[in-house]
């Protein structure tokens, strides 16, 4: 299947909202908000999120199938001058797996953005300790655990694991 990438723009908020609701329903432990909270957001919140994705120091990438439907999304931002952070990663279950390469396609674009459009030296992420599929994908993609863990905000008895990908060759 042929996929294209689309840089998320402010006007994409309806598609982004629909994708975010799918994300939370599919993998509720991964997105730091409940479906009830997400459903309660006004349109202005969704507009804010897509406007932010398109602003300097941020990126939102949607994977688009041949029919024009969004099948996945990946976001990044620059929390510090030398660090880019990967957040909000999701791919529809029908498009997952190494054979399709859609997740890798989106990640390649976020890595390219972090390397070429920012001064980041590394790309970091937090992943829920029980999200084994995501952890395996990140490992295959070159991310390594840093050893840093944080309490999971929706259930502090659970942990989020930090992983990093170096962006600059020394």
Please, could you describe this protein's structure?
It is an enzyme of class 2 (transferase). Residues 3-168 form the N-acetyltransferase domain. One of its GO terms (molecular function) is acyltransferase activity. This protein is α+β, with helices and mostly antiparallel strands and 170 residues long. The chain has one domain (4-166): Gcn5-related N-acetyltransferase (GNAT) (Aminopeptidase). 32% of the residues lie in helices and 35% in strands. The chain has five helices and seven strands. Strands 1-2-3-4-5-7-6 form a seven-stranded mixed beta sheet, with helices on both faces. Strand 4 (83-91), helix 4 (102-116) and strand 5 form a beta-alpha-beta unit. Helix 1 packs across helix 3. The longest helix has 15 residues, at 102-116. The radius of gyration is 15 Å and the shape is globular. The mean pLDDT is 93.
